[in-house]
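Deviation from plan, reported transparently: uridine-5'-diphosphate complex.
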Amino acid sequence: MKILITGGNGFIGSNLTKLLLESNHQVIVIDNFYSSKENNFQDNKFTFINHDIINEMPNIECDLIFHLACPASPKVYLKDTLYTLDVNYIGTKNVLDFAKIKSIPVVFSSTSEIYGDPHISPQDEQYTGNVYPPSLRSSYDEGKRVAETLMYNYHINHRVPIQIVRLFNTYGPKMDPDDGRVVSNFIMQGLNKEPMSIYGDGSQTRSLCYIDDITSALYKLIIQWPAYEAPINLGNNHEMKIIDIANFISESLNIEKNYIYKELPEHDPKTRKPDNNKARKLLKWKPKISLKDGIEKTIEYFKNLD
Ligand code: UDP
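Because the crystal trials were delayed, the predicted structure below was used instead.
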């Protein structure tokens, strides 16, 4: 297949590109380097188009789109919240208009953030979430929610084949060391002999999924097309407190625990854990990489950065 990936130079996109190329697909990457560095790719066996999706899509021949383009870490999506909203609404609309003209399917990477600060745990796909619209963080939460709504309405009104996947916290090689996420921050701080920055008291939880588990699920999704239409959670349900993630990374780095406590960001969700039963059943998929192996591979990646 000839597969177009919007945001294909980002963390998820560059790992997905690698897997698709290894599986003998052709890949076309669209990216504008808003939230990724230009050196994410080691090889050039794909076509690259420097394009911002808030502008009309260029004319490209392809069979399927992975629509991943969006600033995704809190540090980056809070830099320009109106741009974050534009990418999600105008950008997704441009991608869907293009898919409609070409009559091709779109897989959209939504996020666990659409559940906001959840009142239930684990979060299954039926949960409607707890998001506060007049807040900075909601530029991402609500942006992704309206993008899901656009996907659904293009499917209903224009019969664009769609699949929405909600990705939970993902980590691994090709993460940007400066994007402010918990795993990259803790590893880089540990390697640089700085204290790890714990926001709040560290009792909030996240469930970390290694990147290869996510890309293998995305791949299974397209080879098992037709789409299931309703959203699917993709993530590892091994839930941990942030303080325990810091302890785990300190032990993996073989360093003394050294923490500095900082203010909890506004509307930072207190819990997050996917109910991933739907993905397990429909895709015959489950996360395979243990936290130990995943963190070791990620540490190796960060150690070898230029
Ligand atoms: N966090 C932290 N220290 C950091 C970065 C993040 O304690 O240096 C916390 C953050 O407050 C949140 C969790 O770790 O509760 C995950 O943050 P991240 O930005 O990785 O992803 P999020 O799930 O918030 O999008």
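The radius of gyration is 18 Å. We consider this an acceptable substitute for the interim report.
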